[in-house]
Specification:
alpha+beta; Hypothetical protein af1432; Beta Polymerase, domain 2; Ubiquitin-like (UB roll); 5 domains; 5-stranded mixed beta sheet; 4-stranded mixed beta sheet; 20 strands
Length: 713
Amino acid sequence: MQAANGYPEPVLKLRDLLNTYLDPENVAIVLRAYDLGESAHRGQIRKTGEPYILHPVAVAQILANLRMDHVSIAAAILHDTIEDTDLGWQDIEKAFGPEIADLVEGVTKLDKMKFRTRVEADAESFRKLMLAMSRDLRVIFIKLADRLHNMRTLGSMSQGSRRRIARETLDIYAPIADRLGMNSMKHELEDMGFANLYPWRHKTITEHLQSMTGHRQEIVQNILEGLRKKMTDVGVPCRITGREKSPFSIYKKMLSKDLSFSEVTDFFAFRIITQTESHCYLALGAVHSLYQPKPGRFKDFIALPKANGYQSLHTILNSPYGLPIEIQIRTEEMDIMASKGAAAHWQYKTGSSPAGSPPATAEVRAREWLMRLVDVQRHTGDSLEFLDHAKSDLFPDEIFVFTPKGKIIDLRQNATALDFAYAIHTDVGNHTSKAFVDHLEVPLSTRLANGQTVEIRTDKKVQPKPEWLEFAATARARTAIRHYLKSLRQEDTVALGLRLLEKALNARGSSIEAISEKNWSQFLKENHFSRQEDVFHELALGSTLANIVAGKLLPETHPYADSLDGGEAITIAGSEGDALSFGACCRPVPGDAIMAYVSSDRGLVVHRVSCSNVKEFRKHPDRCVDVSWAPITKGMFPVSVRIVTRNTPGVLANVSTSIGEAGSNIETVAQPEANPEIATLLFNISVKNRDHMARVMRRLRRNSNVIRAHRVR
C-alpha cells in the first residue's frame, strides 16, 4: 500500500517509531538509506510475492523495536544491497560513511557462510561469525533480525528448505540470541524453528495448551488478585503478569527430563516487575509469607547474574490449588535487559532508557565472552578446534563459584578446580599446584558446584601436563594447556634433533659449529626449510634422518662415514618429554642396556638391547642410534610384571600392598588366567630404575601368597 508522500505504509510505520527515540537528522539518514535501497532493489520480488525492499524494511523495524541506533537501522535497510544489487561498499561509504558501509559488508560476509547444524556447522564459517561479532556486535543483531523476519515468512519456501532453515535456526541462531541475553528474540526463533522442524509436535502441544487455558483462567485470576493485594499491603509498587510457557520450552523439558505433558505444565507462572532491587527482595519475602516456598527451588540471579547478564529472582511456591506457582521477580531495567540483552546497550546510548539506568550488563558480558573467544582463536590454528571451543562456551549450563575474596567466577557445568585456575589467569592455571574447595584440599580434577569458594595455590616449578586435558572442561583451559604443551614439545624435539645431528656430524669428524653459514643456507633452500630449528624438529620426529642431513651439509667429508665410529652415545635422562618415547614392547628402565630406533611415525624410540624387535631394527643401520642413560635420571618409568599367586580371597589387595610398600605406583592390573588354586596377575607399574625394580621384585617374592614373580620381557 503506497502512501501519498511516496513512502509505503511499512516505511511510514518505521519512521514514526524512530521519531519516538531518535533525533530528526538521524531519522532522515534512515529514510535516505531506504531511498537508496529501494532504488537498488527495484524490480526484485521475494517468494512471498512482495517487493524485495519490504524485507530489509521489516528487519529494520525489528531493530527499531529494540531501540537500536540509526547506524544499525540504516545498515539493516541496506544489508542485502552489496550481495544482491549493483551497489558496492564504496557506494554506501560515499553516501553514508564507513561505519554504515562496514556494517553492511559485515552482514554480507555472514550471509555467505553456510551452516548446517551445531554438530556439522562449517567450522571456518563459525569462526568467522564469532570474530565478526567480536568486532561489532551490531553485525549479529542485524543478522538475527534478518533471520527472525525470514522465519516469519518461511511459509513460501519448500518443505525441505523450511526444515533446513529451521534446524539451522535452532542450532545456531537461537543459542546466539540466548548467549547475548536477547530472550524475546530467542523465544520467537525457537518456537518458529520448532513449528517448522516438527510441525505435528508443535501443533499437538499448542492445542493442549489452548485447551488448558479455559479451565484455569479463574484460578489464575484468583492468584493474581492475591499477589496484587499482598504487594499493596507491604508497599511494593509493581505490575504483575501471568506467564505462559512456550511450546518449544515445554517440548525441551519433556525431552530432557523424560516427563509427560501434564507433568511439565502442572504449575502457574507469574512475573512481578518492581522499581528497585530492594523492592525485589521485599516482594520475595511477601510471596514467601503468602504461599509456602518449595525447599531448594529458589535462585538469586540478581546477586549472581547468568553469563549473558540476565538478572531476576526465581522461586517456586506451593499454591492452595494443588499445583506449584513459579514466580520471577525483577526491576523494570532488569526486565528490559532480560528481553533485549546486549542490544539494550544501544537503547541506553540513544538516551531512551529510564533515568539512572545501570550499564548494559548483557552487552559487557557479551563482549567479555567474545574477547575470550578471540583469545582462544589467537592460540588455535585449527578451525575445527576453535568450533569445539566456541560451542562449549555457546551452549553451556553455567555454575557460579567464588574466589576467597568473594569475586564471582562463572564457569560451565562440569568445570573443575583447574578450569577455575585458568579462569583467574592463564599463568595461574599453568602453575597450579594445589586447589582448596571450601577450605579443603581437593584434586585438580574435582568438579565444582554452585556457590563453592575455591582457592588456588601456585608453584613456578609446576607445568601443565598432558593428562590435564583429560579433565579440563572449559575452552580457555584446554587451549592454554595445548598451547603450552605444543611450545614445550617444540623445544624438546628441537633439542633432541640437534643432538642427533651433532652425533651424525661427529661421526664424520665435524660438528654443528663447523658448518658454514653458506652450507646451511644452501641446504635450507634446497630442502624447503625456513630455519635450522625446523630441520632439528624433523630429525627428532624421524621424518628426516640425521646421517642424510649430515652428508648433505658435509658432502666432501668422509665419504665412507658409515664405517666410522659413531662417537659418543646420546644420553637419556627421562626429562625429554614428548621428544622421544619408550618401546611398549620391552619397557626399558634406567640401568637396562638400551639402543634407539628412529621411527618414521614416532620419532626416536628407546628399546632394551635384549628386545626381540632389535634384530629387525639392525637391518636399517641408518635409523639406529647409540644411546645411554644419563648418570641421573628423572621421573618414573613403566614396566610390566607377571605374578603367579595362590587364588585366595583378598590376594589382589595383598599383592598391591607389597608393590605400594616398595614405593611403586600401580598403573593397571589384569588377570589373564586363573583356576581354583592359582591366579596369574599382570601389573603395569612404574619404577625409578633397575635397582628400584629389584626392590619391588624382592618385596613380592617375600609375600607368602606369591608363587612366582618376574618382569615381562
